[in-house]
Design a protein that fits this description.
Number of helices of chain B: 10
Number of strands of chain B: 10
Number of helices of chain A: 10
Number of strands of chain A: 11
Mean pLDDT of chain A: 87
Strand content of chain B: 25-35%
Structural class of chain A: alpha/beta
Largest interface: A-B, 50 and 50 residues
CATH architecture of chain B: 3-Layer(aba) Sandwich
Structural class of chain B: alpha/beta
Largest sheet of chain B: 6 strands, mixed
Distance between the termini of chain B: 41 Å
Radius of gyration of chain A: 19 Å
Mean pLDDT of chain B: 90
Bound molecules: adenosine-5'-triphosphate, magnesium ion
Oligomer: heterotrimer
CATH class of chain B: Alpha Beta
Helix content of chain A: 25-40%
Low-confidence stretches of chain A: none
Strand content of chain A: 15-25%
Strand order of the largest sheet of chain B: 6-7-8-3-9-10
Order of helices and strands of chain A: EEEHEEEHEHHHHHEHEHEEH
Helix content of chain B: 25-40%
Chains: A alpha/beta, B alpha/beta, C mainly alpha
Number of domains of chain B: 1
Chain lengths: 284, 260, 306
């Protein structure tokens, strides 16, 4: 592996509220180099929390601690909020889980991409619009000129997600955190969007943190996979070795997948064990 | 006679200059007790087809009939008792300020049922939730539990047809397996007919015996599950979908890019 | 958890357990958590405290006031604050403290009346426009725009002038200018709610427009409208004071705060208290409504806070 862009050791995130404290992420450690690293796990296992903790975009009630959280040699935990904003704006891009809620409902999607472009490049509106149209085309949106004038509620889920991706690629970041970027996309578009991310990793040498629960996809797309359960990384594997998983949880997930041409009367469901949520070892 | 019969369905949406044709001569038919899959690229109009059948859009042209009754000849209330829908996003399809109890008893009240209490607790058990969820608010439930509530709501009027719009795409695989199993059980117990939209051909393969492939508002191919699995698809787009479902395939992407 | 242990739940456990057994408990829990959240916001609490004090003062005005608010004593005109007259006296020798105490009734009366008129009208217009869209929306929104395009004080002035000065007319005038923003807000909320899946599901179950508006859209619009009205209270109080100041609101000798400020301004240079005391009352109460409204938003409005 190349030297890591992001290096995280024993990350813990606790949500404090009047009701309870929740250890949403417990002692998570990983490195991301110029490669594609997946975080998989069931809903509520803390995947998004890890992604958001890295860019410090959690609600104020969340407490983040880590032995180390270094990005390009900077300790993200000790950066001032101003510096952090700069990192978020230029060095790390985050593609969020629900595009519909991240887009401004009363501005056309095209205008929003144009605006995003103008924030980073001081160019006249006309030129920015052209770049925005090109950016939309580059995420496989057919007829970008038509889509440009649509409002967020008028685009289908898949299109919304591609628009978000188009916006996120504008500042040319060195790390992309993609939180289930393809869950609303159909399979062919999904592959095309993945190819865009793939090219970025290969040609520009960026790192990709790919949060997903699509095991099938992760297996063939990502270099490494972290499997999370109840806030902890229970297993770490190479993407192509996911089939040889040791942990019962990973095996259970793989078994519950329907597969083309392999019809079963019922799908197997997870039989959760308490031992899965026992604390795992800390990493030095 | 088929349970769902759609002929030459066309629909325009949008206002003024942005009005455009969304559906173009869609035809499909589903036998009683069958599950029919609808796949296709995003934005191709799959959800729109379901919304037309459900009666959420009224200005389409063509013919839609259910159980022998056309849309025009059936009254609105009668249509509700036959067709119900489960939506993709379990977070957006339940009213955030209604308790599960309210969500499930509203439809019964609208249709003048008497034994509301019994029906609500029965349906909760049927979808595997049990009575202790009855007085919770949606935000107190997980995604999978919410989707169960949405299924219960769709079933409470005892419809014959369920329109399922990507009912598991927002759920993770272990919950997806539970919900798909639930659908299979319910179909047997209640003699339901399903029209299922999904991006995931593996899900379609698991659930459906026939499917139609859609692209930009038209059906490009209709085929049976066996044909799909055993290489019987003739349309190139269908085969592309199949290949794309297998794994991340860089060559395929390059082919697609070259083709367009 | 078995049935036996349930009966030994303390009240607190009953209010916080996830095992809800009936509708009443669910409601109590909702209120409990709302209250817990609210109590953690000190500014909102200050706002609430001031409003509670205002309510108490209005309710027990005769007990709190030290003098008759209308009793003149020209011999004791323009006295500075002292033990006999906490806030001093005005140009006619009336006790300012007592006048402010009784004035709280007028302020509350205006605030209540305006919200009772504005809330329903604004919501009805906004929700109808937002839900039905098309022509209904266009017509209703043009009407709203017309009202919105007048500066509120000027419109209130025109109405007060046309209807004649007086407290009731001032209230009507203020209400006329205060509903359009509420309608706008309700319309915007309704438009986002209208396209949600749960509305589609309700339609599919045969719910009619009225039912959807009442049971589905209304409860979701209500919090933000309440918050907005609370925040607008400050504006309402100021407009009422403004009308009073211009002599178009409550008529003398009623102890309306705005009118008091207005009457006192001639003596401002020599007798600061005549203006400062009612002025501060206006300021503190409007500020309190603002703080309270902000706190209310945090726990009523689902998009903020939790
Ligand atoms: N703002 C918050 N306040 C309190 N708890 C939270 C908050 N956000 C998330 N949580 C809790 O933290 C845990 C992890 O949540 P997270 O969103 O990281 O899960 P996830 O793995 O991304 O799930 P999904 O696949 O559904 O997106 C969950 O139990 C969740 O309920
Ligand atoms: N209210 C509307 N006004 C204008 N166009 C609309 C409206 N609703 C949907 N559309 C358009 O109709 C087309 C079909 O949308 P639909 O939601 O049916 O697609 P879909 O096949 O379900 O896609 P996905 O798989 O992404 O959910 C899209 O191009 C969308 O932009
Ligand atoms: Mg997440
Ligand atoms: Mg859809």
């Amino acid at each position: 592996m190349t030297d890591p862009i992001l290096s995280v050791r024993n990350l813990n995130v606790t949500y404090l509220s009047s009701r309870a404290t929740l250890n949403a992420v417990r002692n998570v450690s990983f490195d991301i180099g110029r490669e594609k690293v997946a975080i998989v796990g069931e809903s509520g296992s803390g995947k998004s929390t890890v992604g958001r903790a890295v860019v410090r975009l959690l609600t104020p009630s969340a407490k983040i601690t880590a032995d180390r959280m270094d990005f390009e040699g900077k300790n993200l935990l000790s950066l001032s909020e101003r510096k952090m904003q700069d990192v978020r704006g230029r060095r790390i891009s985050m593609i969020l889980q629900d595009p519909k809620y991240s887009l401004n409902p009363v501005v056309t999607v095209g205008e929003q991409v144009t605006e995003a472009y103008r924030v980073h490049n001081k160019v006249p509106h006309k030129e920015a619009k052209e770049r925005a149209l090109a950016q939309l085309a580059s995420v496989q949106i057919r007829d970008p000129a038509h889509v440009y004038d649509l409002y967020p509620h008028e685009v289908s889920g898949g299109m919304g997600q591609r628009i978000m991706i188009a916006m996120m690629l504008i500042p040319e970041p060195s790390l992309i955190i993609a939180d289930e970027p393809t869950s609303a996309l159909d399979v062919t578009v999904k592959l095309q969007v993945l190819a865009i991310l793939d090219d970025l990793v290969r040609d520009r040498g960026i790192g990709l943190m790919f949060i997903s629960h699509d095991l099938n996809l992760v297996q063939s797309f990502c270099d490494r996979v972290l499997i999370m359960y109840a806030g902890q990384v229970v297993e770490e594997l190479r993407g192509d070795e996911l089939g040889d998983a040791k942990h019962d949880y990973t095996k259970g997930l793989l078994a519950s997948l329907p597969r083309i041409g392999d019809r079963r009367g019922r799908l197997s469901v997870l039989d959760r064990k308490d031992s899965w949520s026992m604390p795992v070892e800390k990493r030095p | 006679m088929s349970m769902i019969d759609v002929r030459k369905l066309s629909l325009d949406l949008g206002e003024g200059v942005r009005r455009r044709q969304i559906l173009n001569d869609i035809s499909l038919s589903v036998e009683a007790g069958d599950s029919f899959g609808l796949v296709g690229e995003s934005g191709s109009g799959k959800s729109t087809v379901l919304r037309c059948i459900a009666g959420l859009y009224r200005h389409w042209t063509g013919e839609i009939s259910i159980d022998g009754q056309t849309f025009a000849s059936a009254d609105r209330m009668g249509w509700c008792r036959k067709v119900q829908m489960v939506f993709q996003d379990p977070y957006g399809s339940l009213h955030p300020k209604h308790k599960i109890d309210t969500i499930l008893s509203e439809p019964l009240r609208i249709h003048g049922f008497k034994d509301i209490d019994r029906r609500v607790s029965q349906i909760l058990t049927q979808v595997g939730l049990g009575p202790r969820f009855r007085y919770r608010f949606p935000h107190q439930l997980s995604g999978g539990q919410r989707q169960r509530v949405a299924i219960a709501r769709a079933l409470i009027l005892e419809p014959k047809i369920l329109l399922l719009d990507e009912p598991t795409s927002a759920l993770d695989v272990s919950i997806q397996a539970e919900i798909l199993n639930l659908f299979s059980d319910l179909r047997e117990q209640l003699d339901l007919t399903y029209l299922l939209v999904s991006h995931d051909l593996a899900v379609i393969d698991h659930m459906c015996s026939n499917l139609a492939v859609m692209r930009s508002g038209s059906v490009v191919e209709s085929l049976s599950r066996e044909q799909m699995v055993h290489g019987g698809a003739t349309e190139r787009y269908t085969n592309t979908l199949l290949r794309a479902s297998e794994k991340y395939d860089r060559e395929l992407v390059d082919e697609l890019a070259a083709a367009s | 958890m078995t049935v036996d242990t349930r009966q030994n739940l303390t009240l607190r456990q009953w209010m916080t357990t996830e095992e809800v057994t009936n509708g009443r408990q669910a409601f109590v829990q909702k209120v409990y958590w709302g209250a817990v959240g609210f109590l953690q916001n000190p500014l909102a609490l200050i706002g609430l405290a001031v409003i509670v004090v205002l309510l108490l003062v209005a309710a027990f005005a005769p007990l709190i006031a030290t003098h008759d608010p209308l009793a003149q004593d020209l011999g004791a005109a323009l006295q500075p604050p002292s033990a006999a007259h906490y806030f001093g006296t005005d140009e006619l020798g009336r006790d300012i403290f007592s006048r402010i105490v009784f004035g709280s009734r007028i302020t509350l009366y205006i605030v209540m009346l305006v919200s009772v008129i504005v809330g329903p009208i604004g919501m009805a217009v906004g929700m109808t426009a937002g839900y039905f869209g098309g022509w209904t929306d266009k017509v209703l929104m043009r009407v709203t725009d017309i009202f919105l395009s007048f500066p509120s004080l000027v419109l209130a002035l025109a109405f007060a002038a046309a209807l004649g000065p007086g407290l009731e007319n001032a209230v009507i005038a203020i209400a006329l200018t205060a509903w359009p923003p509420i309608a706008r807000l309700a319309r915007a909320e309704t438009m986002t709610i209208r396209s949600s899946d749960f509305i589609a599901a309700a339609t599919l179950q045969g719910a009619g427009s009225i039912r959807i508006l009442r049971h589905y859209i209304f409860p979701l619009c209500l919090p933000s409208v309440i918050v907005r009205i609370t925040l607008n209270m400050a504006g309402i109080i100021l407009t009422a004071a403004g009308l009073g100041f211009l002599g178009l609101g409550a008529q003398p000798p009623a102890p309306e705060w705005g009118a008091m400020t207005s009457a006192g301004r001639r003596f401002m240079l020599d007798s600061w208290w005549v203006v400062t005391m009612p002025g501060s009352a206006i300021l503190i109460v409007s500020l309190a409504f603002n703080l309270f409204g902000d706190g209310l938003r945090d726990f009523l409005d689902p998009r903020h806070g939790r």
